[in-house]
Amino acid sequence: MKKQIGITAAILMALSLAACSNQSQSSNSNSSASSSKVQKNNTSKSESKTSESSSSSQESSSQAPEQNRMDNLTAKLRKALPGMLLPTKDGLGTGSDKLNVRYTSEGNVNTVYYSVGNTTSDFNASNLKNEKPYAVLKEVKNASESEASDIINYSPEQQGLPTTKLDDSTTATTQGAAGQKYLQWNKDKYSFVIQASSMMKQDPTKRGKEVLALVNKYGVPGTTSNGNLHVTLGDSVGSLNTVIAWQDGKNVYQIKAHDTETALKMLASLK
After folding, report:
1. What DSSP string runs through 83-97?
2. Using an 8 Å Cβ cutoff, are 195 and 204 in contact?
3. Strands 180-187 and 227-232: what pairing?
4. Which residue in 257, 255, 241, 245 sits closest to 137, CA to CA?
5. DSSP symbol at 46
6. Contact 257, 134 (CB under 8 A)
7. Residues 158-175, buried b or exposed e (16+ Cβ, 10 A)?
8. What is the mean pLDDT of each run of 10 residues along the chain (271 residues)?
9. Nearest CA to 185 among 166, 210, 201?
10. Which residue, 170, 137, 134, is CA-closest to 248?
């Protein structure tokens, strides 16, 4: 009887030890699963942060401003035409992304052509000869006195002609000749002339007031001798109706432009 009780106690003890072992394994399994879950969550968060960082980097790159085309073309012009005064602004309201530039250099004369194309072309590409320029800048180096006089075409202040008031401090003279009307005023070393067609019944006074306002806003280049700004009324496609000329030391400059404000914006940025 005592031997049977001993066997029963041994069996109960074995069963108890097996239950503890199962409980321990279950606990270890739960702990491992929990650890795996935490690791998975951390990995997910890390991947999310990496994705966000990559997305932010791509967005920043896509929003980076494109390099200014005028700056690129002007830098190339400075290498090709060292010492020439050049505008750093294209003077355009629209079309700057399609700006094209070519130049010629013959003897002591350098000429730069600014145009806007349907697409961009390489600097000084041969096909640009077919594009109508909106502005043409010319430099005559070491110009003689007669060359300077012919290019600048300064008009002395007129006397004894009818006058008209352009603003509180500017009075212009008016005259007509050969089917043309001329409005003129002089300030500092510059003459300012507005030319209109009598046959087309154009009024130079209105344009004169507009030009005066633009000159007051942007100014004109300083000149060693005399300077001249001449505007011919009419806005046909490709016309270069604004002509501004001045002298810088021994060099004479002239810009012809389709639009007066564009010309003055460009000249205000000369370097």
Report:
1. T---BSS---SS-GG
2. yes
3. unpaired
4. 255
5. H
6. yes
7. beeeeeeebeeebebbbe
8. 40 41 43 42 45 43 56 98 98 95 98 97 97 97 97 96 96 94 97 95 95 98 97 85 98 98 98 96
9. 166
10. 137
